[in-house]
Amino acid sequence: MAIIRDMIPAFELFQPTTVEDALVLLAEHGQGAWVLAGGLDSYDWFKDRIKRPEAVIDLGGIDELTGISDAQDGLEIGAMTTLTEIVRHERVRSEYTLLADAAEHVATPQIRNQGTLGGNISQDTRCWYYRSGWPCYRAGGNTCYAAAPQAMNREHAIMGTSRCVAVSPSDTAHALVALDAKMIVRGRRSSNVYDAEDFFIGPATDITRMTVLESGDLLTQINIPGEWANAHFYYEKVRDRGSWDFQLVSVAAAFKTSGNTIDDARIVVNGVAPFPVRLDAVERLVRGTSVDEAVAIEAGEIAIQGSHALKYNEYKQPMMSNLVRRAVRSVA
Amino acid sequence: MPAVTQIVRLTVNGDLREVGVPMHFTLLEALRYGLGLTGSKQGCDKGDCGACTVILDGRPTLSCITPVFEAEGHAIVTVEGLADVEGPHPLQDAFDLHGAAQCGFCTPGILCSAAVLLEKTTSPSRTEIKEALSGNLCRCTGYSKIYDAVASAGQRLQVEAQLGESGR
Fold this sequence. Notes:
The structure holds two protein chains of two kinds. By secondary structure, chain A is α+β, with helices and mostly antiparallel strands. Helix content of chain A is about 30%, strand content about 20%. Chain A has a domain at about 10-60: Uridine Diphospho-n-acetylenolpyruvylglucosamine Reductase, domain 2. The relative contact order of chain A is 0.13. Chain B has helices at about 25-35, 90-100, 105-120, 125-130, 145-165; strands at about 5-10, 15-20, 55, 60, 75. In chain B, strands 2-1-5-3-4 form a five-stranded mixed beta sheet, with helices on both faces. Chain B is globular. The chains are: A alpha+beta, B alpha+beta. The interface of A and B includes residues 15, 39, 56 and 110 of A.
């Protein structure tokens, strides 16, 4: 495919200052509209000339979308709040360290200065066949190049696949699921609140989207309930490089404990499926148990049950198993 | 669709500059092709390599993925703005003395990231230096001399502050 990669295709830039105006613009431009947050994912698409939106709706000037405020119970985070602001926020650091930890694991200082929480969880998958503009299922075509016999699929999914084997790249998505965050999505006519767990969707639901967001929708706010504040948290991200890299596999877990007994748990893994995977079976296993090495090992084994490796990503099975084991072991 | 040119007003290195650009231009494109400030480099051009790093309101920012119209009303400092009439920025001297550049393509971005770090602290630890520069890729020298140079510029700033000579 001959693609000229030097200049981005021209687009019309809109800079609304209110959510209402942004929604009007989105409705007006329909499928030709593109929502711009921090620009990391967006400019990647534009400069590769794979996505050519007519109208870019830049959310950077909408004050009501930024900032973290104290709610009656928990925190309310504007979708355009930068990852740096989240990492530095006092209450996030002290009560919701899982989120601070996750946000701090995103890329580089510059990227955290610009990248937003809403953008981080709404970003598109990094599957290189898809990102290079191949006409795959996710792009509206009729095949998956990453699952083909000769495909390079070291970074692809081992579970949750349905024709598409791409993975969710976000470092914060699974932390938000573990914290039972609520996503506020506004449309032209209605507003919806989704559990973080339901916000991320797999290819079986819609192969062209990673989240519930459809054309015309805007993720405006992420609410972190007080329920899991100050829980025992565990976050670990495995990547190829020491800095600046997407995860291979990553775990985010929240435990309510008394001593080394787990009263309740939410354990979520990312980098293994097209969406963050909540490990219900592992949670059931550990709930009410007193953690010892045997429980941790069993948790690791149960975690990968039903997973299916492609040609080059078999390593993700023991990696995921180990991360879950470590998460559970951290309680002991 | 035709690229419509509009006037954008930028505060660059203390000067108010006006330049006509297509509205889809990035800050980097406006700096380089509109204002001729070619110090900031177009490397990967996708926010990966950090060669385009400028200082926007005191924060290291990737100008290649910032819409230029988003930079209106904000203070922009590029590598061209680090030196002043009295001479190069201490970082620039230190990079010179330590041989901390080879091809030099990554250097403007690194100087901007490092300048912000030294604004916060003139005695950063090695880890803090590494963290501050983790978004700037150098493919020539390895990073040791760069880290050394940043540390030594910090020391000089401390000495100057003690002697009361710092006007920076």
